[in-house]
């Protein structure tokens, strides 16, 4: 009877890689499901009546809620969210504190995208001085933003950053502020909006495709392992048979 003989090294490789490939596949499935739920929630809440600043303060689940506010932007503390690409052009998103008059709440409002092709000079933008009525919606990121390097602390304003953390800003400024970013809709003070809920080309179907790739690699690895084990066993069997013939 032939014994299964894959060898020690291939067995160790499979023991390490196979669980990892399967884990990555299920992780991609999980990410895809998260984004599917996120997109469904966004679509449902886009049709709901907008909240006031006071109602937003008391909301237990503010994600993607539409909001109507009246107040003023704080021109002295502007964030420039870097590495934002639209239509193949590099730029930034302008994010500023906004003080809602009715509720007294500070909110961090993303006014939209503007190009920044010439990096040796800062991007040019203006801030309305008068009180404005603005429409916006609450953006809750589907996951933490990956950063190669943390943004520098206490950098001068306007501050170029790669991720937005409202809580840190409110602590730095000593203000009571809303915990999430708001994205402004077209209207007074807005730049280019047209917000994607998830990154372009990274919808649920993309994660499903990645999951299929990881599972296919796991299956191929396991199939190769089985083939190697039976092939080595057959070679061993033939070698033993040849030696027996020579001795006889």
UniProtKB/TrEMBL annotation:
The keyword Cell membrane applies. Its main location: membrane. InterPro entries: Surf1/Shy1 (IPR002994), Surf1/Surf4 (IPR045214). Signal peptide: none annotated. It is a multi-pass membrane protein. GO terms for cellular component: plasma membrane. Keywords: Cell membrane, Membrane, Transmembrane, Transmembrane helix. PROSITE patterns: SURF1 (PS50895). Coiled coil: none annotated. Belongs to the SURF1 family. This is SURF1-like protein. The lineage of its organism: Bacteria, Pseudomonadati, Pseudomonadota, Gammaproteobacteria, Pseudomonadales.
